[in-house]
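Z., the sequence and structure:
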Amino acid sequence: MNKDIINCRPDPLALPDWKPGFDFRWRDALELFLYVGVVVIFSIEGSIRFEEFWRERYVIVSLAVIGIWRYSWWLLHLIRALIYHFYVFPKIRVRSDRLWAGGWRPEQIIFMVCSYKEQYKVTEKMCLGIIRNLRNLGIPGQIYISGTENDEKQIEAVFRHYAPDDDIKIIFIRQRIPDKRIAIGQLLRSVSRHTPRADVPVVFMDGDTAIAPGCLRKCVPLFELFPDVHALTTHEKAVVEGNMFFQKWFDLRFAQRHMQFQSMALSGKVLTLTGRLSVFRAVKVLSEEFISTIENDSLSHWLWGSFRFLSGDDKSSWYALVKQGARMLYVPDAMAYTMDKVEGNTFFRIWRNTLRWSGNSLRNSGRVIAMGPRKVGLFTWWCLVDQRLSTWTCLSGPLAILGVALVKSPYSALAFVLWIFISRFCFSCVLFFYGGRIDMTFPFLLYFNQLVTASGKMYILFRLPLQRWTNRSDVEYDGAGNLFKHVVAMYITILALSALILFVGLYTRVISFPEWQSVRIMLGM
């Protein structure tokens, strides 16, 4: 078999070829023009009926104030992302390519892979991605893998078939309990016992990740170029089997991530060192402080007490490096594919994922915000603050319109729908660039994702210890002994939502302050 060409069997998780750039399709363009046409017709036909809504100036002002704040912040992200994409990173790439062309190579590269009960076809693509990249680099590799006995057999079979003579050393660590954090700690301690050089790149990846050809070739020279860079992460795309809606939802999220991470990288940080694929400098991740943070990361909550983190190891690794002031990079022209199979109710799965991601974010952001902007960096610090504020601002607009529609003008709901169609279309036009193609599901999914994410954050904010992880035995902080805490959490959630509704109602004058005379009569004064 020719080792330079490795063919995968066709299946639903077949990975598409990816090249940086825009994939223009006439069908997508036609859908765009149809969307614009419907919005224009809807605007013209409804203009008379909308006049009643436009007279509700307090609603317009309230939405405008929040909108200007949210849209200006989003525009700032876009400007920063464009600067990074077209000005800053191209210079980095030129220097990196020059270094590589000059003959520089790392002595070796280390992979730390957490695989747990994966399908064979997923494991095959994960291994083939590693094999391709090691051959592209032309250097030896060591792969430390945690998994079940079946995972080990599958991985051995793939390497025995595709790379029997390659200079690849594989070390298995048997994972006997479904705890990824413990598995990462065992892997890192095993790596540290082999005492690699401090500047050896260590690749963190999951068993359901496939590295695109040439990905690591674009990443590892950056550690030589920038001695203060201790971690980096790459662009990411999802390949979903069994559910087109979930695929589209992931496409949107990764397009948003692609833009946001380029904006963040301009400040030498990213918001998370994603567990799917991130590369670290060995000196940081092999320290006992870092390993202990991954294994035992915990938080103390006023209601729930102390609890250990289950998921969110990518947030813990990020937190450990932020504490040390480490610089991070985002590599937008390197790609990793995440493979997923969706079964059962789509919206239930989306809600579960949202709760897990939102919980990871909220559990981590509070303590990083507490470090202050001087330690974290002003822009990064404010991004974390904004993530928390957006929980409430994203819900205020729909609540304001709903109140006005019920109490004053029913046409306000139609006007708001039109505004959503227009504003989300404008956002989507930018995301088309970062997603690599025109996708007219984006305007609808943007608003859907906004509401789901805000609702998920509001729900999990008062239930931070509740952690579900479907592919890791579905463990959560629960039980009859915590019934009182659940009741208190529900009470606070209802109280917070009621306060938001009251504030929005008073601000838009849907609800009026009672007159003093009425209060006196009611109290019998």
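The longest strand covers residues 327-341. The longest helix spans residues 57-101.

Let me know what you think.
H.
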